[in-house]
């Protein structure tokens, strides 16, 4: 990626990247590994066949020079980032068709978006992402069979390109407060879309700026003079031939952001724009030709696409984290700094225990998130199949666990990536480390698709209900079964099982404490809403504890029951990572363990010792573990994290890509600096 332009330009030829030359420290690390890295890669891929498919797919896309950047996006203007992103996104679509026609192993473009491959090709975002991640899923999830038949094929073939326009300048979280209106006129059998205020301008949708010609627009439905709340409508934004905005449509880009600068996020407003009646998505609620409103079985079904994306985000976070931790671990094996023992040679920075502590818990986190994401994906599929058959019973449970997993996975991953960046010292701050861009992409996920605090409060709401049920002796759903009031908690025993059990006790204790705070609030004369707000810091904390209990439980269960096929050597390392994840979080939550699990000071010391022991045990396998993620250099996209470890050569190479280095004297010298240097004050 950094090779083609730069090799000509490095000041000294002997400092150029040499193909095939591998840093000796990395070579030594690879020899130390105690397990078969390929076995782990196969496990991660879900079997040898899937592994081969992935390799083939990566080869097909990543060996194509059209899809690789000659100039890194961070050196481009915002406009060029978009131009470049769009060109590649469109080319990718053609290439995908070609692959499918040749019997390739990929069904749709969406598979290219999440995870590693997408972020390698479109490093700073994809202007077509929302089309695949939200526009098409909304058509599929909210359209009648007739609407699906008409729209979905057009959309898959990119004959229409859409986005999901929900958030407005004034409201993102509180979607019941959206102001865009869709008013039905039975005479013309049309809805009229209108933006009555500045705060009703749609703001944020990906691809909306200059890319999409259609959108699913979420608007307040008015019919027969009555408002029925928010509903989704398919609205044409641009002419299919000229791409000019349709009459009454005001549309544009919202401008540069912390990251995701190629995603073409936009704004949108309507001046009484008409659409035919059959462009309201009517799988759930309907408006009949005479304007009669027919209610949905549940108004929360309108929120289905958000649920879908929350579910896939958890998996996406694991992929981003695998990339960041690969960069930081490889760099930490190559980088030498300071003297551990005076006079002795400088150690690899990964030999410092503090460095191991910065990195290894996050290798473990990749697995913790992956296992939870897999479980959540399976649950999502089960529940949506049931909903299609008219059974909505498990929807609240899915909503509750998806909300907290979305929040915890995005927050943890953002912290982890920032820690990886810090662990690389100054070089981690370079754009060419790819850690800043990765952080920019990931931190956005704490806000989009439901701001994290708000998501945790949704889970807390479900936990309060579950607690009340538990107190009444009613049956509880599986993810909150631990709140059962008759459940006997096992006493502390200095084992990983005890930690997982401990997290459940903590969550149960915090949930009970919240219920008490709410009750006291109401008894003191507060309204239930005021009492909720007063307890909300505690409620967020309880939801996070619940999620941690879920993640650790899942992780341990996978290690105990989901790895029987693996070799003993690999199982041992997987168990170490699971233990590390649990101990790491137990030590971060020492106060909670002391408060809720009856542990003593010496138990904390034992945990500390065990954490140190695990870090040292994992140390020889650290490079092997990140190698097993099997991320190609094009995916890593980092001067610090390439497989060969030619870190300094790549840093110099990438510096030479800067246009500032194109000439020995930059133009700005004549324009301003020379006068300053010669001025007499
Ligand atoms: C394979 C591809 C790879 C892709 C790779 C990854 C992606 C990579 C690219 C991404 C690119 C960026 C994409 C960003 C795209 C946006 O960001 S799109 C916009 C997303 N917007 C949001 O998420 C808005 C967040 N806000 C909300 O969801 C809702 O307003 C809130 C916060 C849930 C509150 O809703 P509300 O209607 O006011 O509900 P509330 O009164 O609080 O609760 C009412 C009841 O409904 C329930 N409820 C609420 N929501 C739901 C729900 N969804 N389901 C069921 N029940 C629900 C509540 O639990 C509550 O139940 P009860 O306690 O009464 O029984
Ligand atoms: C990169 C990116 C891409 C996006 N893409 C899209 C898209 O394609 N389509 C689309 O429709 N939208 C999109 N969004 C918008 C996104 O969904 C919203 O930004 C998000 O839902 C949060 O809403 P908000 O910005 O209004 O924040 P706010 O709700 O105003 O949040 C601000 C603060 O208020 C707090 N807060 C709000 N409500 C409560 C509450 N009830 N209790 C306690 N605290 C509260 C929050 O915790 C937060 O701290 C995108 C956003 C980003 C950043």
TrEMBL record:
Residues 36-161 form the Acyl-coenzyme A oxidase N-terminal domain. Residues 303-464 form the Acyl-CoA oxidase C-alpha1 domain. The keyword Magnesium does not apply. Pathway: Lipid metabolism; peroxisomal fatty acid beta-oxidation. It is found in: Peroxisome. Keywords: FAD, Fatty acid metabolism, Flavoprotein, Lipid metabolism, Oxidoreductase, Peroxisome. The active site is at residue 449. GO terms for cellular component: peroxisome. FAD binds at residues 167, 206. It holds the Pfam family ACOX. GO terms for biological process: fatty acid beta-oxidation using acyl-CoA oxidase; lipid homeostasis. GO terms for molecular function: acyl-CoA oxidase activity; FAD binding; fatty acid binding. Residues 496-677 form the Acyl-CoA oxidase C-terminal domain. InterPro entries: ACOX_C_alpha1 (IPR055060), Acyl-CoA_ox_N (IPR029320), Acyl-CoA_Oxase/DH_mid-dom_sf (IPR046373), Acyl-CoA_oxidase (IPR012258), Acyl-CoA_oxidase_C (IPR002655), AcylCo_DH-like_C (IPR036250), AcylCoA_DH/ox_N_sf (IPR037069), AcylCoA_DH/oxidase_NM_dom_sf (IPR009100). It comes from the Eukaryota. Its cofactor is FAD. Belongs to the acyl-CoA oxidase family. This is Acyl-coenzyme A oxidase.
